[in-house]
């Protein structure tokens, strides 16, 4: 079965420091990965997806199939980046057709001033 | 952008009551909707996946008769927690996606408290 692992429950860095949120996955099919962010008292929202290779709010993430990783990075953290971050993997149900999304347990990122 | 509306946002009711939560996609047709449960300080747990017009696919360990899911139209899915008990108290979140799109759009969630 597919699995997403985020090893850090909590990550605290100082403003201006680099940030890396780790995400590893296991999946027998072709992976499609996402990062979702949940700011305090707001809904979950898509931050970025690997297929679009974009940079949102200064964050980037590269899919490394060899290491089965999709780490989220930002060179200089800002206080407004403080939030919960979830890595997610899109998977296909057996039999084809339908797909689902498996989430990691999330990492609480705290940016200290 | 795509909007998913979830209603109600907060429910408090007595043990034994059945509670219905609605999830609507407001500006797109959601061929697939998902229901999640989030316990305090824990990750989202996928409960079931529903495709419009067909029976929902439940994750292992989720009781089908307890959590009834209906996806009667391309813009509405409902989750009914039948005969709710205090252990069903949780934060329930729905999400929806359009056909052929990988991105998920989430509702604001429903805080269910069973007394």
Question: What can you see in these coordinates?
Answer:
The complex is a heterodimer of chains A (113) and B (115). In chain A, 0% of the residues lie in helices and 46% in strands. Chain A has no helices and 11 strands. Chain A has strands at residues 3-5, 10-14, 19-21, 24-26, 32-38, 45-49, 60-61, 72-74, 83-92, 99-103, 107-112. In chain A, a hairpin with a 6-residue loop joins strand 9 and strand 10 (99-103). Chain B is built from no helices and 11 strands. Chain B has strands spanning 4-7, 10-13, 19-25, 30-38, 44-51, 57-58, 67-73, 76-81, 90-98, 105-106, 110-114. In chain B, a hairpin with a 5-residue loop joins strand 4 (30-38) and strand 5. The mean pLDDT of chain B is 87. Classes of the chains: A mainly beta (113), B mainly beta (115). The interface between A and B is medium-sized, with 22 and 19 residues.
Key structural traits:
heterodimer; A: 113 residues; mainly beta; six-stranded mixed β-sheet; three-stranded antiparallel β-sheet; 11 strands; globular; B: 115 residues; seven-stranded mixed β-sheet; four-stranded antiparallel β-sheet
Helix-strand blueprint:
The complex is a heterodimer of chains A (113) and B (115).
Chain A: E1 3-5, E2 10-14, E3 19-21, E4 24-26, E5 32-38, E6 45-49, E7 60-61, E8 72-74, E9 83-92, E10 99-103, E11 107-112
Parallel strand pairs in A: 2-11
Antiparallel strand pairs in A: 1-4, 3-8, 5-6, 5-9, 7-8, 9-10, 9-11
Chain B: E1 4-7, E2 10-13, E3 19-25, E4 30-38, E5 44-51, E6 57-58, E7 67-73, E8 76-81, E9 90-98, E10 105-106, E11 110-114
Parallel strand pairs in B: 2-11
Antiparallel strand pairs in B: 1-3, 3-8, 4-5, 4-9, 5-6, 7-8, 9-10, 9-11
Order of helices and strands of chain A: EEEEEEEEEEE
User: Which radius of gyration of chain B do the C-alpha atoms yield?
Assistant: 13 Å
Quick one: biggest sheet of chain B?
7 strands, mixed
Report the total helices of chain A: 0
What oligomerization state is this entry in? heterodimer
What class do helices, strands and sheet pairing of chain B give?
Answer: mainly beta
**Share in β-strands of chain A:** over 45%
Largest sheet of chain A: 6 strands, mixed
Q: Which percent bin holds the helix content of chain A?
A: under 10%
